[in-house]
Design a protein that fits this description.
It contains 8 helices and no strands. It is mostly helical.
């Protein structure tokens, strides 16, 4: 059995099915670690999520480009981390919208109030996002909504990394200023 991870990755990128299987086995702990950050080990969805993780790694092999200047393992790890984080966030948000109890206790009233306040803050943020220039909005959208790393944003926008970082930092400063002025 081959044990050199770089060799396994290179052969997997070249389409070697045996090496892809070995790579999936080697990345299994990473997948389960990220699943168990959000779900219990006994949760029935864990196995389905593991299969999603394996599919994500295989998809990463197809989409990986050495021009990213990022090692494949870092590329795959980032995709896995954000996949499970976003899946949990979206699933949690969806469950919160659906499971509204009929009998509301005082602690539920407080959480309902917190949700209303959060929704108002989101509306305020969206209004202020529209005050940014298009280039700043684009970087903020890709970074926070699409969970894309700055290196990938820079590549996709065909700009230097430092420019992407600068746009993000400038946009955040403007947003803080807009929000402070509105209060």
């Amino acid at each position: 059995m081959v044990s050199d991870i770089n060799y396994i990755i290179q052969m997997s990128l070249n389409g070697d099915k045996n090496c892809q299987e070995i790579l999936l086995q080697k990345l299994k702990p990473l997948i389960y670690k990220n699943i168990y950050m959000y779900w219990n080990t006994s949760d029935p969805i864990a196995e389905d999520l593991a299969q999603e993780g394996y599919a994500l790694i295989l998809e990463s092999l197809r989409s990986y480009d050495k021009k990213y200047n990022v090692h494949f393992l870092q590329h795959a790890k980032t995709k896995i981390i954000y996949f499970y984080k976003n899946y949990y966030r979206n699933n949690k948000k969806h469950n919160n919208e659906i499971n509204i109890p009929e009998n509301v206790s005082s602690s539920d009233e407080k959480s309902a109030l917190d949700r209303v306040i959060a929704e108002e803050e989101i509306k305020e943020l969206l209004i202020n996002l529209n005050k940014l220039n298009v280039k700043e909005q684009e970087v903020i959208y890709l970074y926070y909504d699409k969970q894309m790393p700055l290196t990938e944003i820079a590549k996709n926008l065909n700009i230097p990394y430092r420019t992407a970082l600068g746009r993000k930092q400038t946009a955040l400063k403007k947003l803080k200023k807009f929000i402070a002025a509105g209060r």
